[in-house]
Design a protein that fits this description.
Layout (H helix, E strand, L loop, with lengths): L2 E8 L2 E3 L5 E2 L3 H16 L8 E9 L5 E10 L7
Antiparallel strand pairs: 1-2, 1-3, 1-4, 4-5
Length: 80
């Protein structure tokens, strides 16, 4: 079964996956990348108004095959 690695770009921090997980189908690669984003977002400081988290999947050869991005923007509306 092919192994895929999921690298995380969290604002200014980058974390390269050196373990990976085996995925039998490409749908599993997509699901793994997308499902990780909400858990990662839980660690974002509430004081941060603009934040982007990206999970990029690459195969065993290093080729990037999928990317999922979650963006959070918080803005006041009108006068406060």
């Amino acid at each position: 079964m092919p192994r895929y690695f999921f690298d995380i770009q969290d604002h200014e921090r980058f974390s390269e996956d050196d373990t990976g997980i085996e995925c039998g189908r490409l749908d599993a690669v997509r699901d793994t990348a997308v499902e990780a984003l909400p858990d990662i977002a839980k660690s974002v400081s509430p004081a941060c108004d603009h934040h982007t988290i990206t999970d990029t999947a690459r195969c065993e050869t290093g080729e990037k095959v999928f990317r999922a991005t979650m963006k959070m923007d918080a803005d006041w509306l009108g006068k406060v």
